[in-house]
Amino acid sequence: MTEIQDNLLRIKSQIPSGVSLVAVSKFHPVEAIRQCYDAGQRIFGESRVQELVQKERLLPNDINWHFIGHLQTNKVRQLIGKTALIESVDSERLLRLIDSESEKAGVVSRVLLQVHVAQEETKFGFYPEELYDFFRNRGFESLKATHICGIMGMASNTDNLDRVREDFRKISEIFRTVSNDESLGLRDFDILSMGMSGDWNIAVEEGSDMVRIGSAIFGERQY
Ligand SMILES: *Cc1c(COP(=O)(O)O)cnc(C)c1O
Asked: What's the pLDDT score for residue 111?
């Protein structure tokens, strides 16, 4: 067994059943992904369109690719049809574009809306009030070829674990507020994606059912 496979299986054994694992393979070569694939992993996360498209071409087609990075509008068309889930929809404008391109391509795109609660201004996502407004205004009803499956979020990049937990709690509360609102009539809105290598156990404690783990599986990234 390789070190990567060892890491993967150890983490899988630690994650509670019912929580899906996205192996974040960005900046790691196809051979590293292949090792995880051979150990049974089928969900991989990438943050750049070009990289995802190239890897997708070279690897088995039963892989579920998740896009997790900031998606530039001029790259949307290339990505459509290649993903099982776009986790990082960070504006309504991007959502509308994904929808129109999906319709043109004759596919339905599954997406998560990314919410911004972290301290860093550099992070992307809907602010909580924007997100609530989007649902209150029933912005999802006019989508023709996009299904919103849930929420993705990140905690502040800090060693202060209380702060991290507080951020996850906020994201979780937003998810539950929306998913429990029966007046919205949402179907299959049931994914809460939060938690990375350094904080996934806190995220799971706060209700996450999808964790995105990169460096703890693949090692440090070579940028
Ligand atoms: C890179 C990345 C991850 C994985 O981060 P690690 O710390 O390597 O586990 C998770 N989520 C997003 C959105 C990322 O960009």
From this structure: 98
State in Å: Cα 196 to ligand 1 middle.
Answer: 6
Q: CA-to-CA distance for 140 and 178, rounded, in angstroms?
A: 12
Backbone angles phi, psi at 172, to 5 degrees: -60, -40
Residue partners of 76: CB distance under 8 A and separation at least 6: 94, 97, 98, 101
Do the Cβ atoms of 193 and 208 come closer than 8 Å?
yes
Q: What is the pTM of this model?
A: 0.97
Q: State the pLDDT at residue 121.
A: 74
The full set of domain ranges for the chain reads 3-218
The pLDDT of residue 157:
92
* CATH code that applies to domain 3-218: 3.20.20.10
User: pLDDT per residue over 207-223, tens digit each?
Assistant: 999 999 999 999 988 77
CA-CA distance, 206 to 200, in Å (whole number)?
Answer: 10
Residue at token pair 């849930």: 150
Measured by CA distance, the residue closest to atom 7 of ligand 1 is 197
pLDDT of residue 176: 98
Query: Quick check: 201 and 155 in contact, CB under 8 A?
Result: no
Do 195 and 203 meet the contact criterion of CB atoms below 8 Å apart? yes
Phi-psi group of 58: left, alpha or beta (phi > 0 → left; psi -120 to 50 → alpha; rest → beta)? alpha
Around ligand 1, the residues with Cβ closer than 6 Å are 24, 26, 47, 68-69, 196-198, 212-216
